[in-house]
Amino acid sequence: MASTEYWLISAPGDKTCQQTWEKLNNVAAVQNQLSVNHKFHLPDLKVGTLDQLVGLSDDLAKLDTYVEAVTRKMASYLGEVLEDQRDKLPENLLANQMDLATYLTKFQWEMAKFPIKQSLRGIVDAINNQVTQIEHDLKSKSSNYNNLKSNLANMERKQTGSLLTRNLGEVVKKEDFVQNSEYLVTLLVVVPKMYYPDWQSKYEHLSDMVVPRSSRMIFEDHDHGLFTVTLFSKVVDEYKLHARENKFVVREFTYNEEELTAGKNELSKLINDKKRHFCFICWIHVKAIRVFVESVLRYGLPVNFQAILVHPHKKSMKRLRDTLNQLYAHLDSSATGGAGDTVDIPGLGFNTSEYYPYVYFKINTDMIGDHRP
């Protein structure tokens, strides 16, 4: 199985950005087969001032963590909704009708959703607001889903067990009840087997206004029988009282299976919820803005760098890291000590234990496992 880890990196343009791309691809893919690489296309984003970029850098680090967390929550929630079909989760996690890896490797900035004529701060705030709304909706839907799941579980529990507690919707039919009557009503009564003779002799006399010969046994388990009896609705309370005195239990019964079926349909609608697709799209746009901001802060103006999405082969990660460190060692001598060195660099919004001579962000497209940033 291919690795789900990608490295979004950037390096300053040589004479041209194309040369930067060719140099990396030649060393990492052509000569050594350490990775598969893709150009990561960025639009002409507005730079703003240096102070604004430093402030954005810190905010973007927090937003990146937040959007990834919401994206993973969305995936986890979808896995719950899929239940027995959880193995189909990857094919249900899509972005613009593409699987997540394809969306990432073929990334194109979505101009309609995130217009680049606005400032970077404007785009970042818009993403934050949209993801906050998605998270709010997710909490609400998750709560509704859990309630519904609980109702369904209760219903399933009641499909078996004693006639005193089980769901009677599974054992009765429409024709067991008197239909469309203003005055008459059919009750369902649970009678212990030992009291069957008592029931037959007494049910017509437990109150006035009982329809003669209206009782019929419609279901039986190990200990009880379920009987119908039809009477005038105005004597129901009196009938229940006298039935209880004789150890006959009148079940409160309302046929609401349609309600639960409608609930199941709601769940299938959630699987097609477009917002879950949008969450991943937001996350990759945050990564794109981060690589832009850090590249300008690191390499300076005018904007001249190449962003590259590197997909390391699983067993080659350490060699690839060493190769990249050698390739870009001239950019920053303090970083060649490797990932173990901790460097305090103000304004660079990433974990300094992962500081390299080139701009670097990790992306893991596996939404099922635990990949905390």
Automatic annotation (TrEMBL):
<protein>
    <recommendedName>
        <fullName>V-type proton ATPase subunit C</fullName>
    </recommendedName>
</protein>
<comment type="similarity">
    <text>Belongs to the V-ATPase C subunit family.</text>
</comment>
<dbReference type="GO" id="GO:0000221">
    <property type="term" value="C:vacuolar proton-transporting V-type ATPase, V1 domain"/>
</dbReference>
<dbReference type="Pfam" id="PF03223">
    <property type="entry name" value="V-ATPase_C"/>
</dbReference>
<dbReference type="GO" id="GO:0046961">
    <property type="term" value="F:proton-transporting ATPase activity, rotational mechanism"/>
</dbReference>
<keyword id="KW-0406">Ion transport</keyword>
<dbReference type="InterPro" id="IPR004907">
    <property type="entry name" value="ATPase_V1-cplx_csu"/>
</dbReference>
<keyword id="KW-0375">Hydrogen ion transport</keyword>
<comment type="function">
    <text>Subunit of the V1 complex of vacuolar(H+)-ATPase (V-ATPase), a multisubunit enzyme composed of a peripheral complex (V1) that hydrolyzes ATP and a membrane integral complex (V0) that translocates protons. V-ATPase is responsible for acidifying and maintaining the pH of intracellular compartments and in some cell types, is targeted to the plasma membrane, where it is responsible for acidifying the extracellular environment. Subunit C is necessary for the assembly of the catalytic sector of the enzyme and is likely to have a specific function in its catalytic activity.</text>
</comment>
<comment type="subunit">
    <text>V-ATPase is a heteromultimeric enzyme made up of two complexes: the ATP-hydrolytic V1 complex and the proton translocation V0 complex. The V1 complex consists of three catalytic AB heterodimers that form a heterohexamer, three peripheral stalks each consisting of EG heterodimers, one central rotor including subunits D and F, and the regulatory subunits C and H. The proton translocation complex V0 consists of the proton transport subunit a, a ring of proteolipid subunits c9c'', rotary subunit d, subunits e and f, and two accessory subunits.</text>
</comment>
<keyword id="KW-0813">Transport</keyword>
<dbReference type="InterPro" id="IPR036132">
    <property type="entry name" value="Vac_ATP_synth_c_sf"/>
</dbReference>
<dbReference type="GO" id="GO:0005765">
    <property type="term" value="C:lysosomal membrane"/>
</dbReference>
